[in-house]
């Protein structure tokens, strides 16, 4: 960083250096308690800093903010919002937030708008330990990552510090610090569909057997992919690239969906985590677009809910933390400390118990028991009862995670959450479908 300050009679000392030096002087390590003892003015001000972190309910979690305050000494105010509200707020009220916890698909809409601050790779301390899909287009075993949709390589880097254009290849400027990722499929109620082996294909989302009992996420860039996976599996449409449809492919897809909706096939279209959980827990819906933690949440209520492995593969996605442009001085330094803290392990261990993966698994591993690591990351049968992040029983001893290990699941991603060239047209047509 280039900001300089004079403090304690020394000139040319960066605020970030003072932050880091103060922590070192106090002998404080991340995870051991609040950082205290900042020099002179910083000691007086650091405790008064509040950073507003907005994001989806799956990530903007109070317990994460509480732990960050304990470890860092300043306050994180978590605000959970739906994707549309989040994007609108970042564009029209950018100074109302400091940390933008984005799904990668929001980045193209924020590029060139003057609201984000690039993150120099050199300032992010866990880059060397970050797994390969975020640093190249390769899986750890050397296979090439699918480029359909908005893959990690398409999302990860700016061409320059101005944040005008995503590079699509490694540069020295991160668009965001990646914080969690996953491979999504369909959630089902085995007790209401006839068993876990009754749903084996994306096509089953459109099966007449589940008429009036299905749901899609009401977010065009994601909902259209789930629909496309189902339509392609059923043989209705063969897409050149499901992650970047032509207008003709969009029109064909939406027409089929509208016909299905008019026939009463869809029970609901959900826009947030809690809605998806309640639809499934109540039994109103038996098969739907679903996030892994939502499946976890249903199961934690003692209701059988299963994230089924489908023969066509998974839809992948990634999320990260962006810095807002207005951050300067000690607030900017505190924000970068928070980004580094975020992947230092505690958050990764916490979120693993909801079914998410950390881009820096080796730090998350330190905050999981050996049994938890084996269950969540290695796909091994649970050696003990498995609890959710809040201490509630989720899986009994002997069960295996849906889909297996990290790379059995993530290694079978065939398309990523997407931003299409025809995104505006897609959004218009999707809204027509939902409002029919």
Overview of this structure, please?
The protein has helices at residues 15-25, 40-45, 62-72, 83-92, 107-110, 152-155, 190-193, 220-234, 247-262, 273-282, 292-299, 329-342, 346-352, 361-365, 370-376, 406-410, 423-435, and strands spanning 5-7, 10-13, 50-55, 75-80, 99-103, 116-117, 119-120, 173-174, 177-184, 186-188, 214-217, 266-270, 287-289, 306-308, 314-324, 386-387, 393-395, 413-416. It has 436 residues and is of the alpha/beta class. The strands form five sheets. Strands 3, 4, 5, 6, 9, 15 and 18 form a seven-stranded mixed sheet that branches. It has a five-stranded mixed sheet with strand order 12-11-13-10-14, with helices on both faces. The chain has a two-stranded antiparallel ribbon with strand order 1-2. Helix 9 (247-262) runs parallel beside helix 17 and helix 10 (273-282) packs across helix 11.
Oligomer: single chain
The CATH fourth-level homologous superfamily of the largest domain: Periplasmic binding protein-like II
Strand content: 15-25%
Number of domains as seen in the coordinates? 2
* Number of helical elements: 17
């Amino acid at each position: 960083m280039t900001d300089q300050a004079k403090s304690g009679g020394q000139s040319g000392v960066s605020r970030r250096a003072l932050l880091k030096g103060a922590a070192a002087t106090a002998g404080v390590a991340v995870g051991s308690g609040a950082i205290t003892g900042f020099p002179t003015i910083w000691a007086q001000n650091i405790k008064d800093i509040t950073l507003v972190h907005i994001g989806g309910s799956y990530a903007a979690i109070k317990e994460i903010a509480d732990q960050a305050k304990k470890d860092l000494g300043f306050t994180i105010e978590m605000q959970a919002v739906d994707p549309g509200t989040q994007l609108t707020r970042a564009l029209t009220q950018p100074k109302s937030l400091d940390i933008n916890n984005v799904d990668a698909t929001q980045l193209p809409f924020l590029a060139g708008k003057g609201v984000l601050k690039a993150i120099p790779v050199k300032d992010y301390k866990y880059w060397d330990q970050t797994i390969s899909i975020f640093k190249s287009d390769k899986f750890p075993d050397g296979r090439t990552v699918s480029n359909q949709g908005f893959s990690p390589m398409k999302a990860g880097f700016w061409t320059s510090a101005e944040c005008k254009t995503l590079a699509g290849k490694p540069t020295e400027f991160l668009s965001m610090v990646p914080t969690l990722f996953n491979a999504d499929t369909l959630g089902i109620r085995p007790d209401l569909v006839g068993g876990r082996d009754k749903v084996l294909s994306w096509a089953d989302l459109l099966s007449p057997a589940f008429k009036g009992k299905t749901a899609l996420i009401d977010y065009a860039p994601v909902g259209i992919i789930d629909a496309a996976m189902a339509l392609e599996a059923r043989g209705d449409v063969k897409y050149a690239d499901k992650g970047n449809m032509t207008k003709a492919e969009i029109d064909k897809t939406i027409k089929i969906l509208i016909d299905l909706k008019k026939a009463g096939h869809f029970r609901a279209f959900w826009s947030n985590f809690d809605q998806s959980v309640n639809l499934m827990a109540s039994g109103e819906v038996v098969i739907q677009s679903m996030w892994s933690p939502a499946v976890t949440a249903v199961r934690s209520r003692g209701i059988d809910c299963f994230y089924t492995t489908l023969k066509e593969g998974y839809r992948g996605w990634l999320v990260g933390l962006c810095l807002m442009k207005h951050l300067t001085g000690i607030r900017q330094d505190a924000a970068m400390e928070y980004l580094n803290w975020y992947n230092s392990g505690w958050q990764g261990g916490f979120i693993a118990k909801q079914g998410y993966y950390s881009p820096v698994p080796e730090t998350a591993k330190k905050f999981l028991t050996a049994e938890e690591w084996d269950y969540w990351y290695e796909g091994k049968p649970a050696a003990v009862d498995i609890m959710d992040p809040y201490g509630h029983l989720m899986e009994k001893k002997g069960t295996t995670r849906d889909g297996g290990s990290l790379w059995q699941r993530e290694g079978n991603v065939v398309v990523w959450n997407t931003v299409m060239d025809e995104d505006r047209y897609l959004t218009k047509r999707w809204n027509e479908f939902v409002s029919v």
